[in-house]
């Protein structure tokens, strides 16, 4: 309990200033980025900043109208930009659509410098399911990003090979949360047997499911790093963007949402700075920082020891989770 409170405090209050902001971010001309959930919240701010610094940004979103509205807003805010904004239809809650989205991207693009798995859901209504009948949080926060990342590995590798001095500049980042530290089950995720198959336990309550999905993203980032990272020249990491005023809390009750906003939540732009650090900071190197966890507003920290242990353990949850995701998403790859 004391450790959880200490962690909550250290990632919520009196935080050091962000080392990377829109004021000191270098020019991003020639770079290509794909940001999921980019039509609102932190994803919008990250995309806007990258576009303002002349990058080509793919705005990944489910709704074409909302995605294009976001693009129009960014263009209006930064008329001087020499970058480009492209809408990419992307629904992480429906595994059957993701390959087509990737094929659309690959038809338009020959390189990808940063895949930011920013999109996610937080405590949706009880019983919510994705298109394949899997718990919505597990499907949107874990399985969808897993399949997207797996399908984009070849272009990420080619981009890194074309820039041999990049030393980890080509990256995949995964959205985690403070919930990993204070609410996820021992080892990060919990398993159950259903229809004679081992699967993630969806009977642990909304907060348990959400925190497990955020721990799962840390485990997957590390397993991708272990299997592909250095061989492909791609740096994989995870971040807690911070406790922010975004629409991620839209499923909270009105009173809880108001109290959180007043007492705990920070401006969205600060979360964007956390993500920019994960995706672009030169402090993070290929060999030294694989699987790193980035805390607000841009600093590397250690995660809970029982979760970290699952990364290196033979047959641990990182390996087990990767194989489960591979099995569930296999027919959609």
Automatic annotation (TrEMBL):
SUPFAM superfamilies: NAD(P)-binding Rossmann-fold domains (SSF51735). Pfam families: adh_short. The keyword Flavoprotein does not apply. Keywords: NADP, Oxidoreductase. GO terms for molecular function: oxidoreductase activity. Belongs to the short-chain dehydrogenases/reductases (SDR) family. PANTHER family: RETINOL DEHYDROGENASE (PTHR24320), SHORT-CHAIN DEHYDROGENASE-RELATED (PTHR24320:SF236). This is Alcohol dehydrogenase.
